[in-house]
Each structure stands twice: as C-alpha cells, then as structure tokens.
Amino acid sequence: MPPLLPLLLLSLLASASASPKWDVYALVKMKAALLVPATSTALADWDPAATPPAHCSFSGVSCDAAARVVGINLTGMPLQGGVLPPEVALLDALENLTVAACSLAGSVPASLAALPALRHLNLSNNNFTGPFPTPAGGGPYFPVLEVVDAYNNNLSGPLPPFGAAHARLRYLHLGGNYFSGAIRESYADLAALEYLGLNGNSLSGRVPASLARLKRLREMYIGYFNLFDGGIPQELGELDSLVRLDMSSCNLTGPIPQELGRLARLDTLFLQMNRLSGEIPTELGDIKDLKSLDLSMNQFIGEIPAGLANLTSLRLLHLFRNHLHGNIPEFMADLPHLEVLQLWENNLTGHLPAGLGKNSPLKMLDVATNHLTGQIPPDLCAGRKLEILVLMENGLSSPVPESLAVCKTLKRIRLGKNMLSGSVPARLFELPDAGEQA
Ligand SMILES: *[C@@H]1O[C@H](CO)[C@@H](O)[C@H](O)[C@H]1NC(C)=O
Ligand SMILES: *[C@@H]1O[C@H](CO)[C@@H](O)[C@H](O)[C@H]1NC(C)=O
Ligand SMILES: *[C@@H]1O[C@H](CO)[C@@H](O)[C@H](O)[C@H]1NC(C)=O
Ligand SMILES: *[C@@H]1O[C@H](CO)[C@@H](O)[C@H](O)[C@H]1NC(C)=O
Ligand SMILES: *[C@@H]1O[C@H](CO)[C@@H](O)[C@H](O)[C@H]1NC(C)=O
Ligand SMILES: *[C@@H]1O[C@H](CO)[C@@H](O)[C@H](O)[C@H]1NC(C)=O
Ligand SMILES: *[C@@H]1O[C@H](CO)[C@@H](O)[C@H](O)[C@H]1NC(C)=O
Ligand SMILES: *[C@@H]1O[C@H](CO)[C@@H](O)[C@H](O)[C@H]1NC(C)=O
C-alpha cells in the first residue's frame, strides 16, 4: 500500500466521527498488527465481531461511561513482536497507552501525535526505530501529554520538539535510544517538567544553560554515550527542586561550578567519567542532604575540600582516578552514614584518619595507589559491615590490626605493595584476593 493511503484513510475516518464502533475497528486493526505466540491466549478475547460495549472488557482495554476506549495496557502480555498500526490514532478518547516491553518494532505511528486526549504514553523497552513523531502540517502535537516514556528503544533523529505548548508534560524519558543533535532549548519551557531522562543517546552540542528555568525538575539524567561540548552551566545551580543530577560520562570539560552548592535538595550528584578539571569546590559541602557524590575519573586537582565535612548524610563518596593530593581529612571518620569510600589512584599522602570505621557502617574502603603512610586504623570493621578493604600500593606500615582478622563480614582484602612486614593475622590469607601481603 502506498504510504499516503493510510494517512488519508485516517483523516477520513477521524472526520467520520469518533464512536465506540470506530474504537472496535481500531482495536481489531491493532490486534492484527501484533504477534501473539501460537501457544498463548493473549488477546484471544479481542473479538473482531464484538459490538460495543463488549470491547470494553477486552483484556488490557478500559473504557469510559460512553464505551469509548480511554486506556490500553498491553504490558505483561506475552507478545512476540509486531507493530503499532496507524489506526491506533482513531481512538480519539484514548488517555493512556502502555505498550512497554511488548517486543514491538517498526516506527512509532506519526498519527499518535494528533490524539487529542493522550496523557500517558509508555513505549519503553521495545524495538521502535526511526524518528519520534514530529509535528505535521500545523496539526496538534501531543496537546495534553503529561508522561512519555520511550526508554530503551532504537529511536533516532533529533529529540522531539516539545516546548511551551506542553504545559502539562511532567515526565519525559527518552533515554537509551539513538537520538542525536543538541538538547533542545525549548525543553527549558516545559514548566511542569519533573523528570528529564536523555541519558544513553548520541546527543551533542552544549548543555543548555536555559534548563535552569525548570523550577520543578527533580531528576535530570543526561549522561552516558552523549558527547557534549563544553562544561556544566553554572546556571544549573538554580534548579531549586533538583534531587538527582546525573551527568556522567558525557565528555564534560571545565570546572564544577561552585553554584552547584546551591542545590539544597540534591541527594545524588554523579559527574564521574568526564574530563572535568580544577579543584573540587568546597561549596559542594553546602548540599546538606547529599547522600551520593561521584566525581571519579576526571582530572580534578588540589585537596579534598574541607567543606565536605558538612555532608553528614553522605553514604557514598567516589573520588578515585583524579589528581588529588594532600591528606585524607580527619572528618571522613566522623561522617555518620559513610558506607563507601573510594579514593584510589590519586596522589594522597599522610595517614588514614585514625577513627575511620568507628562512627559509620563502613562497607567498602579503597584507597589503593596513593602515597599513604602510617598504620591501618584499628576500627575499620567496628560497624560490622566491612566487606571490601583495598589498601594496596601505598606506604602503609605494620602491624595489620588483629581486629581485621575477626572481621566476619570481610570478603575481599588487598594489602599488597605496602610496608607491612611482620605478622599478618592468619585468617586474612583465607579470603579471596588476599593478594601479596608484603
Ligand atoms: C492513566 O494512567 C494514570 C497513571 O498510571 C492513572 O492515574 C489514570 O487513572 C489512568 N487513566 C486511565 C483513563 O486509564
Ligand atoms: C499494565 O498492566 C501490567 C500487568 O497487568 C501492570 O503491572 C501495570 O501496572 C499496568 N500499567 C498501567 C499503567 O496501568
Ligand atoms: C513504563 O512501563 C515500564 C514497564 O512496565 C515501567 O517500568 C515504567 O515505570 C513505566 N513508565 C512510567 C513513566 O510509568
Ligand atoms: C529487539 O530486537 C532484538 C533482535 O530482534 C531482540 O534480540 C531484542 O530482545 C529486542 N529488544 C526488545 C527490548 O524488545
Ligand atoms: C536495535 O538496536 C540494537 C543495538 O544496536 C540492535 O541489536 C537491534 O537489532 C536493533 N533492533 C532493531 C529492530 O533495529
Ligand atoms: C569533547 O569536548 C571538547 C571540549 O568541549 C570538544 O572540543 C570535543 O569536540 C568533544 N568531543 C566530542 C567527541 O564531541
Ligand atoms: C559547615 O557549614 C557551616 C554552616 O553553614 C559553616 O559555617 C561552616 O563553615 C561549614 N564547614 C566547613 C568546613 O565548610
Ligand atoms: C602525582 O604527582 C606526580 C608529581 O607531581 C605526578 O607526576 C603524577 O602524575 C601524579 N599522579 C596522579 C595520579 O595525579
């Protein structure tokens, strides 16, 4: 069939007036485009001969009082593939379309964009290819959309042109696709946006400073595979509602703007695997509720800033693979919730804080490949959680504390390439990866 014909047909049908009868027609078209395994009874109750309102009890279908289809949920049905046919757009009362993890392929029908009532669209975990629908001829473009989840497909081309007209859009997840080009400036006009997932695409260009206008944004994920030019806009410090910020592994350069210290609600800050440089701003210590801070695998210089002493909610701190020097500050031993501390491959000197492990449920400590000296702190296992202890390639000296030998939780220990001569508690040799002890 020539490609124009279905579209033409659609506009004819649509103008022919929406009704429960047309809903049945669209559902029948949909069923015909889906692949049900021969052994399955999925969609068996979608009877092509059904007359309204019988279609309202098709599995996965819900209707309003007028027997119009308002919801379709095919998630969980054991489909084996198929496509979404353009006739789905005849369902002009449809509010929710959930076809997540249905093994669907082919393109996302352009006709979806015209659905006047579509609020929730979940296309995630399929094999949809080609571009996301774009506006056609000045017609409506997802006029009342609130939630779109297209995570983990094979969609490509530019990001969809959402903007000021999408005043209700609060959840936008386009991660795990092949979208390319820049993040659209118009996304800064999505006044209701709470979730922005653009991670794992092929995006480029600068991270727009204008995103700072998203005052309701709680979560932003834009890293992984994307390759941006330039750095982190200082304006992002104005994202007052932000709880999670993940800009890992996306070629960011330049310093961390000290303005990020204003993100008072932030709980997770992931900036690892970039080319960020300069000193770690001490202002990050102003983010009182920060629980996870990952700045590993960058080019940071200078010392671990004193301001981090104020991060009393911190559970995870990754600063490994940078060029940090100076001491590991004593306050590390006082952070009451610290579980994971990874500082390996830096140029840190001095002693490990003597109280490390005493005041927190320390689970993992890795400070390998630095220039640390002095002794191994005695209380690393005091929280009875220590599983992984990696101290190798430093200048630490004997003795190895007996407390480690009775640390029942310990699974992996590496002490090699230090100055630990003399007796090492015997049990430590029994652990996997005990490594060389001298
Ligand atoms: C659509 O989905 C939302 C969120 O899951 C739900 O609150 C709403 O009731 C659904 N509406 C219909 C018509 O199914
Ligand atoms: C869709 O159906 C699945 C399986 O019954 C259910 O787990 C899921 O919550 C439903 N989703 C929506 C949005 O109604
Ligand atoms: C979309 O569906 C998937 C699979 O059921 C689910 O995990 C995900 O949370 C849904 N997305 C939204 C925004 O509800
Ligand atoms: C996409 O298609 C490939 C190849 O047909 C298949 O292996 C994969 O499981 C599919 N992925 C999803 C999410 O359906
Ligand atoms: C989607 O992309 C994956 C990874 O590149 C590929 O293996 C798969 O075959 C693609 N699926 C389709 C339907 O193009
Ligand atoms: C990475 O960022 C640098 C500096 O902004 C830029 O010159 C370069 O083109 C980017 N690399 C890629 C692969 O985009
Ligand atoms: C911790 O926060 C307090 C109060 O905001 C501030 O006065 C102090 O200088 C901070 N400590 C460090 C080490 O920055
Ligand atoms: C440690 O410092 C030395 C001397 O300044 C320098 O050559 C080396 O590259 C640094 N190593 C790291 C991991 O920063």
UniProtKB/TrEMBL annotation:
Protein name listed in UniProt:
Leucine-rich repeat-containing N-terminal plant-type domain-containing protein
The record lists the organism as: Panicum hallii var. hallii
- SUPFAM superfamilies the UniProt entry points to: RNI-like (SSF52047)
| Keywords for this protein | Leucine-rich repeat, Membrane, Repeat, Signal, Transmembrane, Transmembrane helix
Q: Which segment of the chain is annotated as a signal peptide?
A: 1-18
Major localization class: membrane
Per the record, GO CC terms? membrane
Where it sits in the cell: the answer is: Membrane
Which parts of the sequence belong to the Leucine-rich repeat-containing N-terminal plant-type domain? Answer: 23-64
Top-down, what is the taxonomic lineage of the species of origin? Eukaryota, Viridiplantae, Streptophyta, Embryophyta, Tracheophyta
